[in-house]
Amino acid sequence: MEEKKIRLGVFGCYRGSAIAACAKIAGAEIVAACDSNPKMIERIKPHLAEDGVIYDNFDEFINHEMDGCIVANYYCEHVPYAIRLLEKGISVLSECAAAITMAQCVELVRAVEASTAKYMLVENYPYSAACQELKRVYQSGSLGRVVYAEGEYVHPMSVKEHTGYAPTPDHWRNHIPPTYYNTHSLGPIMHVTEAMPVCVSSQAVSRPEIHEGTLAQNDPFALMMCKMSDGSVISFSAWAQMGGHGHWYRINGTKGAAEITRYDPHRIRVVYNGYDRPEDQPRDSVYAPEFPFDADKAKKCGHAGGDYYIAHQFLEVIEGKREPFFNVYRATAMASCGILGWRSCLEGGKVYQIPDFRREEDKKMYENDHVSPFCKEDGTTDIPATLGEK
User: Fold this and answer.
1) What is the set of domains in the chain, with CATH numbers?
2) I need a labelling partner for 390 at 20 to 30 A (CA). Which of 5, 37, 145, 152 fits?
3) pLDDT at residue 54 above 90?
């Protein structure tokens, strides 16, 4: 008898179609999709099951029989839809950051805690072959305990590209502060060390000429620093929009260090001091690791194979075989770093404690904090997304 496949829906078919393609490779069936844009609907059609159904409104879509849903609508609009899915017992795989306000973080955590379904954040950068090897090396213990780590995600866009993605004044890309989209820089470090951020301090840089010709009202860079639950300190940039596209991660331990090489993100360097070198390891080595499993499938998927492992893990989560690494608590911790990190920038680097939303007192502290840099219906914002020219 053929094993019954996990049934997935897709809400938001631009990015959702890419994740859906990887979920199919991982063994899922895409039974429904929802998007109001006909062009996006065309993107998802090749991945739909033969009897898959397409919807143009969420109210009908949510009533389709499915085990889980890929939530890939606009960055600033995930939470209300994720909560409705969770309330209906449908597991959620949520794209980008978990939430855009502290109150949303609380609402999302409470919804997950009250649901029989599971929540998992799409954070794919930790699952490249190089980042998975970085974790394997660190978790082996040969580097000792992490002292200091760095993460960097730099993704500038041309005026034409930015305008294509963000053609209207109220589009989220035109108002996102440089600390908010931090999952691709903070996420890999959290995955390698398995530590949580406990406080954040940030400094931003204003360079309006970078966005000249676009409708952007935000800054291109912020340097963020966190104290972590394991006692280490990390520094990272979130979504940096400046010269030199790329991403990079480094772990410095008490006995050795490992990093993704800057010149080739598919390779890693592991280095030890001579007096701390394990007997079976060279003092300094650079190599290109392979994926730990399903390499042939991962190589068919985007983000250096990371999209496959996210999809594969989500299916295992739905099946009850494991818990998600980027669960609601890690996801909202990263979102809190972005939200409070931007307040730190606006206040000259003030240190903010990161709440632990497993605790009810921390939920109470932020349950009514709706401050947001994104546009409301009347076009206004609560706080700016730029320091202003300096």
Assistant:
1) 7-124+311-318 (3.40.50.720), 126-294+329-366 (3.30.360.10)
2) 152
3) yes
Strands of 146-154's sheet in order across: 284-287, 268-272, 256-260, 246-253, 146-154, 233-240, 221-228, 197-205, 352-353
In 3D, which of 155, 96, 370, 129 has the Cα closest to residue 266? 129
What pLDDT does 389 receive?
A: 60
Cross-strand bridge partners of residue 234: 149, 226
Q: Which of 207, 212, 116 is nearest to 162 (CA)?
A: 212
Name the residue with tokens 């794919």: 124
- Whether the CB-CB separation of 326 and 175 falls below 8 Å is answered with no
What tokens does 287 get? Answer: 């190599």
Contacts of 203 (CB under 8 A, 6+ apart): 222, 223, 345, 349
The answer to whether the pTM exceeds 0.70 is yes
Q: What is the DSSP letter of 201?
A: E
* SS3 state of residue 185: helix
Residue linked to tokens 């394990």? 278
Per the CB < 8 A criterion, the answer to whether 166 and 214 are in contact is yes
